[in-house]
Every structure is written in C-alpha cells, then in structure tokens.
Amino acid sequence: MLDNPIASIRNLRVEFQTKDGPVLAVDDVSFDIRPSETVCIVGESGSGKSVSSLSLMRLVEFGGGEISGGRLIFDRKTGGETDLAITDQKLMRTIRGNEIGMIFQEPMTALNPVFTVGRQLTEGLRIHMGMNRAQAKARALELLKQVRIPEPERRLQQYPHELSGGMRQRVVIAMAMACEPRLLIADEPTTALDVTIQAEILALMDRLKRETGTAVMFITHDMAVVAQMADRVVVMFRGKKVEEGTVDEIFNSPKHDYTKALLAAVPRLGEMQGKSLPEPMKLLGDTEHSRKPIPGTEEVLLEVKNLVTRFPVKGGFFRRTVANVHAVEDVSFSINKGQTLSLVGESGCGKSTAGRSILRLVEPLSGQIRLGDTDIVALDQQGLRKARLDMQMVFQDPFASLNPQMQLMDQVAEPMRNYGTVKGDALRKRVEMLFDRVELPRSFMRRYPHELSGGQRQRVAIARALALNPKLIISDEAVSALDVSVQAQVLNLMMELQAELGISYLFISHDMAVVERVSHNVGVMYLGRIVELGPRAAVFEDPQHPYTQALMKAVPVADPSKRKAEKDLNFKPIPSPIHPVDYEPAPSEYTEVTPGHFLLTSDSGY
C-alpha cells in the first residue's frame, strides 16, 4: 500500500504569459506523495512551490498559467488513477475539496467577505457529503472546536473581517479538513499564526494524517516547521527541483549550495544568548564589517501610558452596545530613538490593535500617546495628518494594503505626492532609490501587485513606509509571510536602515526567533495586557510569567531531532475578551524583577 503514491508529479512544466513574453514558472519537476506522508516543498517565494500545488488542483489556469508538459497522477478514493493534467474542469470540481483539500496562504483572500463563516464551512459539506443543514452545522461546529477557535457558536455567525488573522487561518484549515480529503495541500498554512496556535495546528494536522491516512503536501519557507513536520523534503529554486531527501538528510548533510544558504538564513532561538544588542544576521557570502550591533540612543521617542482600546459589540433591534471587546487594556511602554520594542503574543491578544491605536487608525478610548513633543491623542484631523509624516505602518497582509489598480511605482510615490515632499524628476529618482534599498529590480516599477510574490509585495510595502523618512515605523507581522532567505534579507535591511537613519520600530510579531534577533526590548501580551516587559535578554533568557514560559516552549526548532510531541503543548484555552458594558477591569500592576524587567502582578487570567 505504501508503495502506491497518492499523487505523483512527473516532469511538470508550467508557463505564464506576460507582457514581456512567456515565463517558465515550473520546469521539469517530479516527486511523489505517499499515504500518511508529509512532503515539505521549500524554497524562496517565486521558486514555483505554490504553482506546483495550484497545478495539482488545476487552479493554475484561473491565474493565467498553463500546464505545458508533464503528468499529474492522482490515486482517487474510488480506486483508479487519474491524470489531473488532462482532466476536465467538471470532474475537477468533484475532486477539489472532496479528495484534495487545500489550505491557502492568505486567509483573507481565500474566504469570501460577503458570507458568514458558518455558510462557507457548511457549503462544501452539503455539496460533497450530501449533508442537510443541521448535520452540516453540527460538523462545522465540531471542526471549529478541532482547530481550537474560542466561542465557535458565535464565530459561525460572524464574517471573515470580524476575525483576527490567526482565526481566519484556522477557519481556512477547518474548511480544508471538512471532507477528510485523501491529499491535503497546505500552502504556508501557519505563516499568519502565532507560535502556540502554530504548534497546535501542526500537531492537529499530524494527528489527522495518522488517523485518516491523509497525505500532506506542505509548502512552507519556515525551516523550523519543516523540521517539525516533514518526512521528506523537496527543495525548489527558480522553478526547478534542486534537492530531495529525508528530513534528516536535508538538515544534517545538505548537498546543494542553495539548500545550505537556506539553512544558514534561519534565525534560531537562542542564537543571541550573551548579546545584549540586536545585530543583523550573517548570511552566506556576507562580509564581516556590515554586521555591527545596533545600540540606539537613550532618548525616548514614543511614550504610551495606560492605553485602552475597546470595540463595542452591538445587538438587539436598535443595534445598541450590549458588550465591549477589551482589545487593549491599560498598556504602557516607551521606545527610544533608534531602538526596537517588540510586542509578542497570540492572535487576538491586542498587539495589532495597540499598534493601530498609536497611529490612531483605531481610536483609543483613553490613555496618552506622545511621539517626541507631540500628544497624538489630542490632535485634530489636520494635526494628525502632519504627525503621520513621522510615523508609518507596514501591514501584515501586503496584498490587502496595496492598491490592486495602481502600478508599484505610483504606490511608493503616493505618500511623497500627498505630502508634496519631493517633486518631478527627484521623485522618480527617490522611488528608484527606494526600490534599490529593498532590493527589488527597477523593472518591477511598472508591475501591479498581483504580478509579484508575497515576499516581493511586502518589500514594496516597506519601501512605501520609508518614502517619507519617518521616525517610527510600526511593523505589524511585516516578515511573517516571507520566506527565510527573503525574511533574513528584509530583517537585515530594516536593521541597517535603523542603524543608518535612526528609525525606531514597534515590531509586532509572533515569531520568537525573529523577535530575539531584532529587539532591544520585548513586551509579551496576553488578553490585551502586557504581562511581561523588559530588555530582550532578560525576557528570553529568564522568562518569569507562566504565559511567556508557555510561549517559549511552543517555538519549533529548526532541528528534526528536537521535534515537539503533542503532550508537550498544554495551553489553556484563551478566555473571552468580551465583557458587559458595566465591567470595570482592575488596573495593571507591575513588580520590577530585575532593573527594567517588569512582571504583571495583578491577575492576568492565565
């Protein structure tokens, strides 16, 4: 049985027609996926990983691609092999979702914004499994519990935009699992998830794989996830397969230069021990002189005191406020000029809301926000517009934050046009310089966002944030969707810019290894409060709060011999942040454990 692969990709070749002629996205790629096996496909964005999976689903045609050669043999539930490369779309509709499930990379674009989560979850069950409404709803509820979404009954009634990024991704995973497919294609399924949920989702997928014999094709750029999940690894580079082997072979004795470079770019937890300051990563081929620690200054740039942000929950006939979501509750911290403070925590803990409240993209309920001498909370619209010259944001999902109808050149130039900082020929030169800074070819300036890979789009977003020379950049999961080599380059770029221009960062992330690499100070958030705050070395090497300790334990390590077992992960379910209108939470009280290292002593609920 094990010798019979569920899917065999043979000499696959995929082309895309572009304005500049045909582009070969995948060239002569072959590999097998067997029952109960996880095959991880790794490589940079643009290497053809996602195109291979979309070809197997025959979705590549809808994106302008064409399978111009090769065979895609799939062993169906009903028995008998089918070549998916020549199957008609009518039969493919039966196979998709029912026999091959797919978890897409960007959950906001994979979910339909006009239907509730419940409707989207039950649709596949009713079409493929022939369930009635009540059965489908019961199964949908069971699936949401499986992927550990809090308050699943309420979530079924909600729309995708009402959920955090991590929750949306869990809904997409539940949808892919719904019909118990024979083959599950997971395209970066955990990029937008925080460590605790990532650890659980990986354990969940592993358990489902063992129980149902599902084969998993796992596309990722996170080498720690590969070490945790893979049985075999296929390394891709520029549309070709450059190496294939068992997970131990790839990690312990990589043969190809590209695989070695990929492994060298992985930030590993614990690498910064004994170093008090962040410093850029040493990548293959780098010279030594460019890797200097970044001290920053002692001058405070941003001060946040007792920040509270709540969202009303409306209900009843008159849509009155019946409760409040306590997204950010009594949060205080400061960031020095030229330094980085990272906020870490699970999705839904309020870290993104805190970042948006500082820019007043979300209006805070109370608290003080001072940027230099400016009181941000007191500003009117005109004053706020002026203040935003000094503070910019890089959002988590670059596809949603870029305008699909504008060329990239205009998107990067737009902030400068809006504020009139640079004009004419100088504007074009500055845009070219920004493209050079984020290491994108100038020929991309004429392209549109959909013509770029995820990592390239995120670089455009960073270039746009740098356009106005801001003093503070709030980076909301800015590198979570990037592959390792690109992530390492973007992080190094951000740190070099910090050293050169004295930019301060509020770095919002769930990737503990990345946070350890870039931070001067770290704040750990749980249920809207900072439960631990201090210098990076203190928080990482001596975590005091039980929640921080649980977070550290969940981080996957890029070493196949240190896999986490499901029994190691004992997270408590997150309590609901929704409270009645008259609920008054206690203020946050801290004790100083060591100089600058603060621990929340009032009840954090963990």
TrEMBL record:
Keyword match Cell membrane: yes
This protein's GO CC annotations: plasma membrane
SMART domains per record: AAA
Keywords: ATP-binding, Cell inner membrane, Cell membrane, Membrane, Nucleotide-binding, Translocase, Transport
Source domain of life: Bacteria
Topological relation to the membrane, as annotated: Peripheral membrane protein
Protein name according to UniProt: Peptide/nickel transport system ATP-binding protein
Organism lineage: Bacteria, Pseudomonadati, Pseudomonadota, Alphaproteobacteria, Rhodobacterales
Predominant localisation class: membrane
Pfam families xrefs: ABC_tran, oligo_HPY
